């Protein structure tokens, strides 16, 4: 086989997105605006979507159930163009509980599981890797978008060439975070647009309720994108500010969904 036969230009494909933020920021609502979504639930966070909520699997009480549901989406014909995992934070809690309970030494926490020294956290990261691999298969072979919803937590960043500082990250072990931050197309941090008033040290933070999503690298939180987005994107409930920037979402939004034949 020659170079001419092997080399091609990359084509637009379905996307993998992580949406992170504190509670009540609209992560689930934003995920529901992706094309033809179906939800895999590790927690019951869809109440705010009301009667027009997308279809969803029953709430999983084990990581194996999440894997089984992903396999169903990969094996069967269906009209869904996006799978949302809500949330990988709660999924991480399930995974860590399973690892602790499976340890015959009955450790008190994930830090003591599998003999300690980070072995329990490594086992949790490996389970996340397996789940992420299944999601990658859906992107590649079923042309499904994948949206991971994550709750925010803070971490201390220690770099060799800078002073220590604190930033927002996904609420789970660092080794597990990489599966949802490094090998995805976009990490968006959702927050309120905030202003400060007052003088000196006694400033007051206020907001008009406008939500923004930051997708470019920022020192205050984990975020990135592969679509040349360099500004904060404001959005209202029921709208998706990413659609105009991500080619695959534009194409999918314009295509009607054909119901699968019985």
Q: What composes the largest sheet?
A: 10 strands, mixed
- Proportion in helices: 25-40%
Strand portion: 15-25%
Look at the helices and sheets and give the structural class.
alpha/beta
What is the terminal separation in angstroms? 43 Å
Indicate the overall shape: globular
Please state the CA-atom Rg, rounded to the nearest Å. Answer: 20 Å
Number of helices: 7
Any descriptors?
single chain; 262 residues; alpha/beta; 10-stranded mixed β-sheet; 7 helices; 29% helix; 25% strand; disordered C terminus
Write the layout of secondary structure elements.
Layout: H1 3-6, E1 16-21, H2 27-31, E2 37-41, E3 55-56, H3 63-75, E4 82-86, H4 88-102, H5 119-141, E5 145-157, E6 165-170, H6 174-181, E7 186-197, E8 204-214, E9 224-225, E10 233-235, H7 247-253
Parallel strand pairs: 1-5, 1-7, 2-3, 2-4, 4-5
Antiparallel strand pairs: 5-6, 7-8, 7-9, 8-10
Structure description:
It is a single chain. The protein is α/β, with parallel strands linked by helices and 262 residues long. It has 7 helices and 10 strands. Strands 1, 2, 3, 4, 5, 6, 7, 8, 9 and 10 form a 10-stranded mixed sheet that branches. A hairpin with a 7-residue loop joins strand 5 and strand 6. The relative contact order is 0.18.
Outline of the structure:
29% of the residues lie in helices and 25% in strands.
